[in-house]
User: Fold LacI family transcriptional regulator from Actinocatenispora sera.
Amino acid sequence: MEGPDAVGGRAARPTLRQVAAEAGVSLKTASRVLNGHPHVSDATAARVRGAADALGFRLNRIARELRSGATSTSVGLIISDLANPFYSRIARGAERVLRASGLQLVTASTDEDSTQERSLVEELLERRVRALLVVPSGTDHAYLEPEHGRTPVVFLDRPPVRLAVDTVLVDNRAGARAGVAHLLRAGHRRIGFVGDLSRLATQRERMAGFADAMQAAGVLQWERYVRADSHDQATAARSTRDLLATDPAPTALFTSNNVNTAGALRALTGVPTPPALVGFDDFDLADVLGITVVGHEPEEMGRIAAERVVARLNGDDSPHRTVVLPTRIIPRGSGERAAADIR
Amino acid sequence: MEGPDAVGGRAARPTLRQVAAEAGVSLKTASRVLNGHPHVSDATAARVRGAADALGFRLNRIARELRSGATSTSVGLIISDLANPFYSRIARGAERVLRASGLQLVTASTDEDSTQERSLVEELLERRVRALLVVPSGTDHAYLEPEHGRTPVVFLDRPPVRLAVDTVLVDNRAGARAGVAHLLRAGHRRIGFVGDLSRLATQRERMAGFADAMQAAGVLQWERYVRADSHDQATAARSTRDLLATDPAPTALFTSNNVNTAGALRALTGVPTPPALVGFDDFDLADVLGITVVGHEPEEMGRIAAERVVARLNGDDSPHRTVVLPTRIIPRGSGERAAADIR
DNA sequence: TTGAAAGCGCTAACAG
DNA sequence: CTGTTAGCGCTTTCAA
Assistant:
């Protein structure tokens, strides 16, 4: 049941000109009707609408925006992994704010690949997104410099390198320091660190916070219990088992993000006297599992970043600023097990 | 440091024409250089590129696509909630396939609102997405009928109403039936059902599967233990507590999706002899928590739907088809607690 | 109330 | 190797 204009099984989409011809009016009149503009007689309007429906016409917003000079209403969000709840919560927070301003979120993921990051950014800019929210994977963002004063760009979660733009971060170093101090207070001295890729700024900062706390407590040889660069649950589980097999074994673990916490938990299943555990990032069901975390609000980060974007689009040209969100320890049991009680 | 064309704090973006003028060549030559086409002398090319960089030029893909008649390279995905792992896993599965075909995923969420669904669909179509992946919230999709033969549309998770298009579903009824039968086999007769909005087709089917199993087992008055329409964890927790307070209390629970399972788990925390539990949908850490589920693969659903889209775009005009993905019971302990052992 | 002509930024077709 | 002309689908003058 293809229309007469079917080409290779695909019907050609009618243009406004065809609708106008079908209705026996000029292009402009058809345009007026379909855009709800005044000064058209009811009869004419009805005829145009009838023709549009009959042909399956749908306005081409792209062409409209090109002519009217209006930019698109979409805002790009670049994250590393769509399926990581941490990023999808950022996306949700941002989407709510943007939608309230009539903007649409376009999400793309990089799989933590800096080449992908750059090409996605370029592509979105060529598509003329109004603004860009970026959780960077790359290590140099100077290529975004020419956008200054053109397209508002806000970085989230990780700071930009060689680029000055609005940024929303979490206080990683202080958060990690507090989380580890929490374990030290329970009497732990041998504390294992299970971390993600150390090329990520967030991870380096959390590692630094870990070191801060250990050094402040005068613990020696804490480096022995550091396992970094596990970017998925399986690797984190392996690192955890590896730590538990050390002699003497650590009595506590600090996991540096949600993925590593999940991996560690997997490795700890069935262990009779599991080490104490504090994880960076809160996660769903952490309360049911009784896992103490260094929590913060990804939605909040998305919300604030989106609000910056909206402000910039509304003409705010104040100097770029960096917002650092606080963390807080949420004690749920796993982080309060005393060192004396482990093994 | 705005450029000379700054308007309201925003620099105007240079056009190809301006680049050409700056480089002292024609429009077409500039176009050739910036598109990497042959037959341009190195010297000219260098001059054009220099001008482009100096002006901060970025090709306008929208205009290019308009002129070349090429449709965009984006595919729209409409889901109800970006932050529900179930949907983000669908998105990830789809994105991988699409990217491999040079297509970009554009995600938008509806918050389970059918008005939102329709307006997002219309908007994406006006933006000329190449195809549409829809997890519907609405109850009538006839408005998509004119797209037949124009834009490939694939429905996921829930079937379309009054519309014939490719669809990828999960075998909800059989899955629920099997999950409940699993509980019945462990001797349970009083089984509580904690369900999501019953206007959702998936929920009605899972409810039907629940009823199938109960009736086949000759259980009477099972309706007493049915609590539907909880769409968030808090409500599901309340329904669960309500069920546990019934006299006589159910010895087992069947939760009809990931959100309700999480809510139930929250309500069950600290209960000395918790009821047996089987949940529909697998979820992260279910293994650590020892929760028996009726599992299936959301990524797979996204992948298959995206593959249908790609096939359609490549000219496949075979009749539309519905793929129903199987589920399987993953026993992890919570669903194997015998009725005799509860209270 | 309606319409004709021009042009948004770009590429295709055809000259030079 | 380079340039000129036309036109994608639409809106914006400006005129009737």
